[in-house]
Amino acid sequence: MKSISLLALFCIFSFFTSQAQHSFQKSGLAPGATSSINQQLSDPGEIQITHSPSNVIMSANSVSCNAGNLHADNSYFRIFDLANDFSITSNFLINRLEIGIETASGSSGSQPIVANFYTLDGSFNWSNLTLLYTETFSVSDQTLSLFEMQLTEPVLVTSEKILVVEIFTPDGQSIGNSFFIGSNNSGESSPSYLSAGDCAISEPTTFTSIGFPGVNVVMNLYGESSTVPFPYVYIAGLFLLIAGWIIFRKLFLNN
Q: Which of 122, 118, 120, 121 lies closest to 132 in space, CA to CA?
């Protein structure tokens, strides 16, 4: 009987949570706390690209579309124009990604997030995005941190393309998950975007446009320039082959 009562209470709680009105709300952490971690490049050939001048994560700075701090579907984006913003004019091979986390609290001690990589052709909306790669990661409960995602397969972005990275947090309300991406108000070299259909934002939209100009999402990409070298070795090999054939003809064919 006791177990049945507990189940009934859980069902009632889940029902009212699902019926609660969605809105963009902050995490409920006390403001004023910060954390900063400076990541190191993993090897001399690695390049970091970011629009975040600071990796500081601030409490009570981010918002998500949620009800009672349990998030609905939320997507967070950044645009990386490799050539114009980062002077990368060769192909770029992405090996890892890191994001700030203000707070993550899963009902089981962890929760899934999805990293999606797209190319953008035209204005920034869903119809102009082409998916390059997707991978799901498990995020353990944490607060004011940087979370690194090592990609199972590196993502190759050709030099003429504009890259968009999405962090998607699937609806956690039915199972009690809460996630707020890490951010600060230290400025950014390009806007942070989000979309959340349950809060009537169906297309990628800047945080400034919905009234939160201080939400500068911390997101860093790491990779290597994959310039295709001029084929000197092949040209030299071909030259030696031709020269050898000419010498062979002269010596043995009298030609």
A: 118
What is the Cβ-side half-sphere exposure of residue 79, based on CA atoms within 13 angstroms? 23
pLDDT in tens, 38-62: 666 667 789 999 999 999 999 999 9
For residues 139 and 230, which has the higher predicted lDDT (pLDDT)? 139
Domain ranges of the chain: 22-230
Cα separation of 44 and 47, whole Å? 8
The two three-digit tokens of residue 61, written as one number = 């700075």
d(CA 235, CA 255) in angstroms, rounded, equals 25
**What is the per-residue pLDDT across 182-209, written as a single tens digit (0 to 9) for each?**
999 999 999 999 999 999 999 999 999 9
| Residues 6+ away with beta carbon under 8 Å from 140 | 104, 106, 109, 110
Nearest Cα to Cα of residue 224 among 120, 94, 58: 94
DSSP state of 128: G
φ, ψ of residue 124 to 5 degrees: the values are -85, 95
Backbone torsion region of residue 176, taken as left when φ is above 0, otherwise alpha when ψ lies between -120 and 50, otherwise beta: left
CA distance linking residue 194 with residue 177, whole number of Å: 19
Number of residues written out for the chain? 255
